[in-house]
Design brief:
This is Ig-like domain-containing protein. Helix content is 0%, strand content 43%. The chain is mostly beta strands. It has two domains: 31 residues, no CATH class; 41 residues, no CATH class. The protein has a three-stranded antiparallel β-sheet with strand order 1-2-3, with no helix packed on it. The protein has a two-stranded antiparallel ribbon with strand order 4-5.
Length: 89
């Protein structure tokens, strides 16, 4: 009896079947669908004065889910009084 490995794609899963002598092994591996990331900040425009408080939300899509990291211009850390409170806010 020959040993045989069969791989196939079924319903978004990778299906593996290994026949090894008189034994047979099976597995299914869910595949994560890759989608390019998108991001938008709400509100797009905000007219406020220096020192005013406001919240911005970054809304993202993609697979795997994008990680949101807020920073200042040129990647600088956020200035005093400005905080990343998580969840894209």
């Amino acid at each position: 009896m020959r040993n045989r490995l069969t791989l196939s794609f079924v319903d978004g899963n990778l299906k593996c079947e290994l026949n090894w002598g008189l034994r047979s092994f099976h597995c299914r591996v869910p595949l994560q669908r890759e989608e390019p990331p998108t991001a938008r900040v709400v509100p797009r425009v905000w007219n406020g004065q220096y020192g005013d408080k406001h919240q911005f939300r970054c809304i993202t899509t993609g697979s795997p889910e994008p990680t949101i990291v807020w920073s200042g211009p040129d990647g600088e850390r956020l200035p005093d009084g400005v905080a990343d409170i998580g969840g894209g806010i």
